[in-house]
Design goal:
By secondary structure, the protein is mostly helical. It is built from 5 helices and 2 strands; from the N terminus they run ααβααβα. It has a two-stranded parallel sheet. Keywords: Membrane, Transmembrane, Transmembrane helix.
């Protein structure tokens, strides 16, 4: 028989904070470097081509990033405080669907969201939390 693998005690609050802050830094760096600008611009052109009345304006930056910060922290917290890999998978997929579902909602409101940088950060949160949860004991 193989030796059972030792999994360290979880510290979900610290891990959720660390994962979220790292994801926020990744998203901000991608946004600041302009890597996501081309894809965000093509999204804006596609939304303008839908024929919606009025003009499309970008979101107010601090409001968008405050929302993104909240989503990152809440997503990582939820993933690290839930037992079971399949439950974490459902939360991860639901978070992605809700995140992508804001695109048409904001377009109807006359706003164009930041998409690429926050999406990369969200993927960082989801993958990081899933890896952390797989390598540590389950919460009680």
């Amino acid at each position: 028989m193989s030796e059972p693998t030792f999994k360290p005690d979880p510290h979900p609050g610290v891990a959720a904070s660390a994962i979220s802050v790292m994801a926020l830094v990744v998203a901000l760096v991608i946004q600041a470097m302009g890597v996501s600008g081309q894809w965000d611009a093509s999204l804006m052109e596609r939304l303008r081509g839908l024929g919606l009345e009025g003009g499309l304006e970008p979101l107010i930056a601090w409001q968008a990033w405050a929302w993104i910060c909240a989503v990152y922290f809440l997503s990582s917290w939820a993933l690290l405080h839930v037992r079971g890999t399949w439950r974490r998978g459902v939360i991860a997929i639901s978070t992605l669907v809700v995140h992508l579902g804001w695109i048409p909602v904001l377009a109807l409101c006359g706003r164009v969201p930041y998409l690429v940088a926050p999406l990369v950060g969200l993927l960082w949160v989801l993958v990081g939390a899933m890896i952390y949860a797989a390598r540590h004991r389950e919460p009680k």
